[in-house]
Amino acid sequence: MQPLSLYNTLSRQKERFEPISAPHVGLYVCGPTVYNYVHLGNLRTFLTFDTLFRYLTFVGYKVRYVRNITDVGHLVGDGDEGEDKIGRMAKLEKLEPMEIVQRYTNNFHDVLLQFNLLPPSIEPTATGHMIEQIEAVKELIDKGLAYESNGSVYFDIEAYNRNGGQYGKLSGRILDDLLNETRELDGQSEKRNPLDFAIWKNAAPEHLMRWPSPWGMGFPGWHLECTCMSTKYLGTQFDIHGGGMDLKFPHHECEIAQGHGLNDHDPVRYWMHSNMLTVNGQKMSKSLGNSFLPSELVSGNHPLLDQGYSPMTVRFFMLQSHYRSTLDFSNEALKAAQKGYRRLINGLRLLKAMTFEADADVPIDPKHSEEIANYRQALYDALNDDLNTAVAIGHLFSLLKKINQLDTRQLTMGQLGEEAFDLLKNTFVQFIEDVLGLQEEPIGSPHRPTPAAMITGMLDLYREYKTQRLYDKVDQVRTYFKAQGLVIRDMKHRIDWAYEE
Ligand code: AMP
Ligand code: ZN
């Protein structure tokens, strides 16, 4: 089997994945800043790492997955000046900052559950790690890598580079270019060098979120929390750090500088970045006004949407592209994804309902078991190739053909043989449900799903009306199914229902 390789942003190439102490894997992912509802773009990034977490677990690693909640320190504009995003929202809404944090953390959890993302092993918050952050600032000052200025503390890029650091190595930014980009920003006078970044910020009394420190009342810089929390729970060097592409610079570049500064070695072995969800080629973001909330997507209640799409349709849509490619949102692509997802789930339903029954006198044709084993192998190979879910889905559709052949009896259980049948069932179910996290959805309205007993009862009525040749009523039952997004499959050997593709 091809070994697992992952694209490492640091080396700009795919590398064989070798954990520091297998079977354990440490995975850290930058979580949301909880000042607003998560949008679909954010969801794409979290989905990428959910899939990675699922796959690593599936192949036997014991993963400690840490995904933080940013509840202080992330300033409007992502730089060192300006208001705290949460503090600003608290003022606007006349609420306590922690009420804002709680409201949007709850929303974040609800959305992830709706899209079937697994919870992380640890979900630490920045405000819950104030002591660790203050200690880290002290240590960086002691090591000559940071300095105080007017009650704020800045990381000293020049001192860091003199001591063996390479600021810019993750994002590939050249220091001179950075200087040109940064020079015009305001609030630089406190800094020795415009590139230096805040690890502690002095806060005036009107600032809602402030803590006592050796440098006066203030709050930690945005980049520091991830360094402190990843180190605390995963060690000074750990396996994988993930986040969206837009976090490469400055956030992750600064995390490397802080981690290296504190511990004299790089904090992370593999840096992974998920590409952006775009709308008409533009990054989906709240500030550009082109973002959808997951709830709008499900209801279809948004000017850019032709109709509503279910969470699993969206999950399938996202998994159909490789995480390092941009993914452009469009109604056409989502409609195609809806069809694809339903085809796959119809296959899953059929397969789950099947049990092996040998046909008398039919010899096993080994061709089928070979093919199934090859597809299973190909599924592993696709995911081992930098988590290529797009290719993996293609192989699942190849397996789906076998399932449909079994259903229509073009292929019999006897020809397949019990071992091959079990392999088909395990492979299809495991990769769809455990690895890709796709599952069957409730029928009918997401808010008021139709009970399964209702569907079964209506199907019984259909059979009854058909036997009595009451064709008007038969048609009425068909219409009922259609309204639920289902179709009746009236076959010679069986009457059943399926999701309408
Ligand atoms: P934030 O709450 O702004 O810190 O973002 C949370 C996560 O969502 C980060 O990892 C971002 O990189 C990611 N993100 C933001 N916008 C997009 C987008 N349009 N597509 C994919 N990921 C995004
Ligand atoms: Zn982070």
Please give a structural write-up:
This protein is an alpha/beta fold. The chain has three domains: 5-274, HUPs (Rossmann fold, 3-Layer(aba) Sandwich), CATH 3.40.50; 279-435, Isoleucyl-tRNA Synthetase, Domain 1 (Orthogonal Bundle), CATH 1.10.730.10; 452-499, no CATH class. 46% of the residues lie in helices and 14% in strands. It is built from 17 helices and 15 strands. The protein has helices spanning 40-58, 85-93, 97-114, 130-142, 157-162, 175-182, 222-234, 248-263, 294-299, 311-319, 331-353, 366-384, 389-408, 413-416, 418-435, 452-467, 471-483; strands at 5-8, 13-16, 24-29, 62-67, 146-149, 152-155, 197-202, 218-220, 238-244, 268-274, 277-279, 282-283, 327-329, 486-490, 495-499. The chain has a four-stranded parallel sheet with strand order 4-3-9-10, with helices on both faces. Helix 2 packs across helix 3. It is elongated, with a radius of gyration of 27 Å. Adenosine monophosphate (AMP) binds at residues 30, 32-33, 41-42, 44-45, 243-244, 246-247, 276-277, 283-285. ATP binds at residue 286. A motif ('KMSKS' region) lies at residues 283-287.
Instruction: Note the gap between the termini.
Output: 35 Å
Query: If you average the pLDDT, what whole number results?
Result: 93
CATH class of the largest domain: Alpha Beta
Q: Tell me the Rg in angstroms.
A: 27 Å
